[in-house]
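Late entry, iron/sulfur cluster complex.
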Amino acid sequence: MSADPIDRHGLSPRFWERKALTELSEKEWEALCDGCGKCCLNKLEDEETGHVELTRVACRLFDDSTCRCAQYEIRHQFVPECIVLKPTNIDSHAYWMPQTCAYRLVWEGKPLYDWHPLISGTAQSVHDAGVSVKDRTVPEFEVHEDDWEDHIIEEPT
Ligand code: SF4
Ligand code: SF4
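Prediction complete; structure with ligand written out below:
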């Protein structure tokens, strides 16, 4: 059973259905992340079509065994390009985000899945549902960027 590093206690029931993304508190915004880890995988984007393919090659800070960023608070010291998703920039990022990402779902006006920790009450449900990338990735320092296309995967949904 994996512990949930995100504090989801004391939040209003179904707050994401009653508030706009821009109205969420910082704690509510952070609690929306389901911990699937899919945004930490490298993607390949076709410059002409904008089509995005997911690879199983994970960011150098991704811990495959916990499915978490190993240095989340200070990650920009090591990975300056890591995007800080906000209500004000999600419009420009949603196209590449995983289909099951809670931020993308709420932004699209769709409901969260029953396995989301805010609904199930446990972070483990994401892994049990098979939608996370826990124990499924390879670290980017083991795969040259030219070979990433050999590691393209379907998004686990
Ligand atoms: S894809 Fe979305 S829900 Fe999954 S870990 Fe990333 S931000 Fe969180
Ligand atoms: S720095 Fe951390 S949060 Fe950002 S992509 Fe890498 S593992 Fe994920």
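Residues 15-153 form one domain. Will revisit in the morning.
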